[in-house]
Amino acid sequence: YHGVHISIQYFIKCRIKRPIFFKDLVEAREFIIEFDSDPIGAPPAIKQLIKFEITPDSLSAPRRELIPDFRVTGQLDSLVWQLNEPITGEFQVEHCSVPIRSIELQLVRVETFGSPPPSSVPLDVSSSGLHDDRESSRDATEVQNIQIVDGNPLRNMPISIHMVLPKLFTCPTVITAAFRIEFEINLVIIFNDNYVVTENFPIKLIRSTLQPISLT
Question: Which residue ranges are recorded for the region named Disordered (predicted)?
């Protein structure tokens, strides 16, 4: 995993010793290790269809009068994904008062870290994240960006979402007392006047040998 502040890398290095007047020959190569680490007795992940609707009223923009009148609806097939499977779903633009220039899908990596907590300070680590009174640093960076739509799409036409996860820049979601590695996807709509709206979806990445359970 290659991150901004957190990286986990494995190298193999070969060194050929040469006589005293010659420089040693050294070559290093990075390699990848994949390990399915299901805890004993852990239940399989649950995949559930997530429907969404994006309108001016659903956004938290401070000046909504600048936002064009539009409505985008769709679904993500899940918010839990195996690292070796693509993120999929679909959406459609039902109506929009101005032309759309582009629609993109972003994969965002969120690294949160801080100093380990003192033993006297209680720390609550739950599925929603890290909660304590210590100062921590949160850094969100774009890992991958794909253009789904180029130009003004037809109204009510289903548009597929399909993003393959990059192997070197993603890893299973990790939440510990000292740091977190999490991932999000953004559906970004760019209008002709360059006004941009974004819908954010926190996702969980896993590497598991257990077959996920799909709920409809």
Answer: 114-141
